[in-house]
Amino acid sequence: MLRLFPLTTDPIKRDTGAGWDEMSEAYQRDSDISLDDVHYAPFAMGESELNLLGSVEGKFILELACGAAQNSIALTKWGAKCVGMDISPKQLRQAAKYCAQESAQVGLVRGDMERPSMFAPGSFDVIISSFGWEFIPDLSACFKSCNSLLIPGGTLLVCTAHPLNAFEWDDREGAALVTDYFSPPVEVWEAPVADGHGPGMTFFRTYSEMFDLLTRSGFSVERVVEPFPHYLTDEMDAGGGKSPYVGSYWSASRERLSRMPFAIIYLARKTA
Predict the structure, then answer these.
(1) CB-count burial class (<10 Å; 0-12, 13-18, 19+) for 93
(2) pLDDT of residue 251
(3) What is the pLDDT of residues 40-90, one digit of tens each?
(4) DSSP assignment letter at 186
(5) What percentage of the chain has pLDDT greater than the value 90?
């Protein structure tokens, strides 16, 4: 079931949602994302191998920026009870198709993940997102909302774009042009946008900034992972390997992916 809630008037977030509407079809077509495992980074191990969450049997899980809800569907197959939230209606329509295809009971909600106020405090055992946090202008507000929504000792899994991805890749040198790591630039999307909208934005945050945001929001950071693309082979582009996140969408970035982390994962626990 898809539920719609009023969206933010913040133009940055509205532009991001419109941008994902424009990109959704191509992204889902060119990305081979598993419906049987949780994905964390292109060509990298998924949850079935990294085991960051442990058993999810019977747990209530909220997936923020769920996209087409592949992670929620996989977690549901493992016995979890999942709700997926996204700001893009087109992404959620694809999610509804996948849920029907897989007979997966996933609640789908369109809303603003910065302040998911439609849920009651203490509603979830786990909150997870793979590549959604970097689109949130006020991440402190989001983390504080997540803390409220989690049960005592609940888990927050933050999988986001590594701050090194803020910098241009030089193909000739085979290296990232890191101009100022301590103040990474905001990425302004080059993708076409719908009438009435500006381009979306991606916000990169250093490790120390993320650590401070999490701890100040009432979390303890238990583990940090920079997933390595173990399955970066020709076979992976055809979906024949073990990574739950592959596809032609990533083919042009093979050298970059092999030399620097695309993602960084923070596994945190609610302490307050």
Answers:
(1) middle
(2) 81
(3) 999 999 999 999 999 999 999 999 999 999 999 999 999 999 999 999 999
(4) P
(5) 69
Distance CA 127, CA 150 (A): 7
**Coil/strand/helix, residue 35:** coil
DSSP state of 15: H
Give the pLDDT confidence score for residue 102 in this predicted structure.
97
**Nearest-5° Cα angle at 73, 20 to 192:** 10
Structural domain count of the chain: 1
pLDDT (0 to 100) of residue 177: 94
Tokens of 253: 């970035």
- Phi/psi region, residue 239 (left: phi>0; alpha: psi -120 to 50; beta: rest), is left
Give the CA distances from residue 64 to residues 44, 54, 145, 204, in Å, rounded to whole numbers and listed in that order: 21, 19, 12, 18
The CATH number linked to 32 is 3.40.50.150
Look-up of token digits 């999810």: 56
CA torsion sign for 244, 186, 110, 226 is positive
Indicate the pLDDT class of residue 234, thresholds 50, 70 and 90: low
Which position has the token pair 């193909």?
171
Query: What separation, in Å, do the N-terminal and C-terminal C-alpha atoms of the chain show?
Result: 32
Q: Which domain holds residue 154?
A: 2-270
